[in-house]
Amino acid sequence: MADLKKFENNPQKQLLENLKDVCCVMLGTPNQDKHMQPMSPQVDVENNEIYFYSDNTSELGQAVLEKPGFVHMCLVEKDYQACVKGYLITHKDRDTIEKFWSPVVAAWYPDGKSDSKLMMLRFVPHDAAIWASTGNPLKFAYEIAKANLTDGMPDLGDMKNVELDAA
């Protein structure tokens, strides 16, 4: 269940915490003719930073190398959704590669941290549209029934537009 109190008080931090707990988001590319791709975010909540391991021969990697730029990142969970706009650039800091390295990441790079295809991308969030609900099935059923009886709209959660570059 999404924490609606945290959603009200600090949606920026809640977004980073939710991103840290997921295995995959859909990440856009600076080349708007290409589709979004599933990517695993590496999130540093304390420093408000989001990174992705990528491959410099992949469609996404090539697009960022050719022209870094604004992209969208989407997170969709049962009771929490976010569409985040931010700037995607290459990030060459070896300490960042080391910080987030894991056996899962290693499976994609046969030559390890020195693999010639390995590249790190840094996503610098700018703003987001975020939706959160309680995920309570009883509340959902009640709100749907109430809306159908009153011709009103169901109240299933909240939506916020938030600035993130100063998060």
Unreliable parts: none
The arrangement of helices and strands along the chain is: HHEEEEHEEHHEHE
Strand content: 35-45%
Mean pLDDT: 89
Oligomerization: single chain
Helix proportion: 25-40%
- N-to-C span: 23 Å
Count of alpha and pi helical runs: 6
The coarse overall form would be elongated
Overall structural class, as computed from helix and strand content, comes to alpha+beta
Number of strands: 8
Query: How much is the radius of gyration in Å?
Result: 18 Å
Report the biggest beta sheet as strand number plus sense, adding barrel if it closes. Answer: 8 strands, antiparallel
What is this structure, in a nutshell?
With 167 residues, the chain is an alpha+beta fold. The protein has 6 helices and 8 strands, in the order H-H-E-E-E-E-H-E-E-H-H-E-H-E.
